[in-house]
């Protein structure tokens, strides 16, 4: 189900891109899609930084180009087996991507002081 939901999400994002976020029809469609997602599962696959990560539905609109240049550099710096400290991890995007790069031989430590974030949005393992 996640794969179908994720593909539909990507299609809806492409269709909605030229429409203003303030457009009432787009807002209505977004509310309906949010309702559907909340009834069919807690997370969705989101393409980001050349990979796919599972995030809570509320973050489904994160751009695939989010911090593209920074991720490009990050991928050069982080290698398999590295130890990565993500201080100020926010929602955990860099932590998850780092974990995928370092693999089982590496380690990722993430800290986020803000109670509302604390990597509660990323569900990828």
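Sequence proposed for the structure above (125 residues):
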């Amino acid at each position: 189900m996640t794969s179908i939901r994720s593909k539909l999400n990507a299609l809806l994002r492409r269709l909605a891109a030229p429409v203003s976020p303030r457009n009432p029809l787009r807002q209505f469609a977004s509310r309906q899609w949010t309702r559907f997602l909340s009834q069919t599962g807690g997370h969705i696959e989101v393409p980001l930084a050349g990979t796919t990560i599972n995030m809570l539905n509320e973050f489904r609109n994160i751009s695939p180009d989010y911090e593209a240049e920074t991720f490009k550099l990050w991928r050069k710096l982080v290698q398999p087996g590295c130890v990565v400290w993500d201080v100020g991890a926010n929602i955990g995007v860099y932590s998850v991507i780092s974990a995928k790069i370092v693999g089982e031989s590496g380690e990722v430590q993430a800290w986020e002081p803000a109670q509302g974030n604390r990597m509660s949005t990323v569900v990828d393992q």
